Amino acid sequence: MPYVQAPEARPVPDERYPGSQQDRKDIATQTVRSSKPKDLRPPSPPTPSQTLNSSSLPPPMSDQDADPSLDVPTGVAMPYNIDWIFPRLRNPSKFWYVVSQFVVSAVGIFSKVVLMFLNKPRVYNRERLIQLITKRPKGIPLVTVSNHYSCFDDPGLWGCLPLGIVCNTYKIRWSMAAHDICFTNKLHSLFFMFGKCIPVVRGIGVYQDAINLCIEKAALGHWIHVFPEGKVNMDKEELRLKWGVGRIIYESPKIPIILPMWHEGMDDLLPNVEPYVIQRGKQVTLNVGQPLDLNDFILDLKKRQVPEPTARKLITDKIQEAFRDLRAETEKLHRERN
After folding, report:
1. pLDDT digits over 244-295, tens only?
2. Which domains does the chain have, with CATH numbers?
3. DSSP letter string over 156-184?
4. Which CB contacts under 8 angstroms, 24+ apart, belong to 31-39?
5. How confident is the model at residue 14 (pLDDT cuts 50, 70, 90)?
């Protein structure tokens, strides 16, 4: 399905900027789009005349070059047809919200019991996360990013939040979930859909319905959580982050608040080996980092009309760099607890 910008994505006043800076701010909404439906195929590599002077751009942090050909869709098995899910997530009905509230509440209470009462969590800068969820400027999206060490990272980590957030379908995050794990049949698909999970098809690149829908939710000022490693990182190696998060941030009509987080111990709470049973008494450390101040950087990319494949890579590189520092800090905090 082609990406069609949400009707609500038209420019609106941005509370982060005074009136005198509104013209400059509006550049953030000017990602070049054709009036025709957007072709979801990866764009052609930029011509030499489009290539920016490499000295004017930050050095790349990812492990691979920004080659759009890496995103060419490949043959991916589809165990279950998920096409019917996207229209329901794009335009939720009143019935959807009622059922979603029930599912989100049940999962939220379960996550809080497991994390806060059965185990030993320590959350650093928790209030920072709560403030950005509940009191950020109206219409400004929040994109949280974290490492992915356990299948219980989401929803488990959100057990640290107050019940008014973790049990509220209007406040809890949108999150992408693997189509071949969470959306394998009708019952599972309904459960995860009502839990505000968006099916992402791993292996077909950044031009897919899941990323498009995240951009639309960002246009509405919602909270979106992304695991940019793209999978459960059982070996805890430093992976090149997936560029989908960069596209969400770059194409959002309003530049999101970007909040990195790092956690340790979730793979002890729910080990990645059979029989996959939730454990008790495990130490879990969650460290909420400082929001990334990329506004001027992204505005400059848009002003210079940097090709989207290059721009999303550069943005993702910034997140990767922040992850490195936050990981070292969190691992140290976690070790000191032991």
Report:
1. 999 999 999 999 999 999 999 999 999 999 999 999 999 999 999 999 999 9
2. 84-336 (3.40.1130)
3. HGGGGS-HHHHT-TTTSPEEEEEHHHH-S
4. 31/250, 31/251, 31/253, 31/302, 31/308, 32/305, 33/5, 37/2, 37/3, 37/4, 38/2, 38/3, 38/4, 39/2
5. low
pLDDT at 67 over 80: no
Q: Which residues, including other chains, have CB under 8 Å from residue 207's CB and lie 6 or more apart?
A: 3, 40, 41, 42, 71
Would you say 124 and 261 are in contact if contact means Cβ atoms under 8 Å apart? no
Q: Which residues contact 299 (CB under 8 A, 6 or more apart)?
A: 24, 25, 27, 28, 255
Question: Residues 156, 266: contact at Cβ < 8 Å?
Answer: yes
**pTM, two decimal places:** 0.81
Instruction: Give per-residue pLDDT as tens, 34-62.
Output: 333 344 444 454 444 444 443 344 333 33
Distance CA 206, CA 228 (A): 12
